[in-house]
Design goal:
This protein has 113 residues and is α+β, with helices and mostly antiparallel strands. Helices cover 21% and strands 43% of the residues. It has one domain (3-111): Tubulin/FtsZ, C-terminal domain (60s Ribosomal Protein L30, Chain: A, 2-Layer Sandwich), CATH 3.30.1330. Strands 1, 2, 3, 4 and 5 form a five-stranded mixed sheet that branches.
Length: 113
């Protein structure tokens, strides 16, 4: 039996001042989570701890994201986090600042027949 994708949810998050890529990533994950409901898991009597959760974060500086903090922010499942080049940086040259925009995709897989 192989795990099948049953949920795909996307979100966006930002840090408007300070260029904190992890903060933007965490906000993107929370945005995605707030668009989702796990009622299907209850209906199928699936233990949420067993679902496979794959998080992909897109930011302009992937190495600046603390993937372990992102992983710890997910409430259920066996979580993996991958950070890739994406998102958007919006510089404010007048204030030597940058607004960071992160994208998040959360995939949930279940072992189904």
């Amino acid at each position: 039996m192989s795990a099948r994708r049953v949920i795909l949810e996307m979100g966006a998050g930002n840090d408007l001042h300070g260029g904190d890529y992890t903060k933007a990533a965490l906000r993107a994950v929370q945005d995605a989570l707030h668009h989702s409901s796990l009622s299907m898991l209850r209906a199928l009597k699936v233990d949420p701890k067993t679902m496979l959760v794959e998080v992909t974060i897109g930011v302009q500086q992937p190495g600046a994201v603390d993937a372990e903090r992102v992983k710890a922010s997910l409430p259920h499942g066996i979580v993996t986090v991958r950070v890739v080049k994406g998102g958007l940086d919006v510089p404010d040259d007048e204030r030597d600042d940058v607004a960071v925009i992160a994208s998040a995709a959360i995939v949930v897989r279940l072992e189904l027949p």
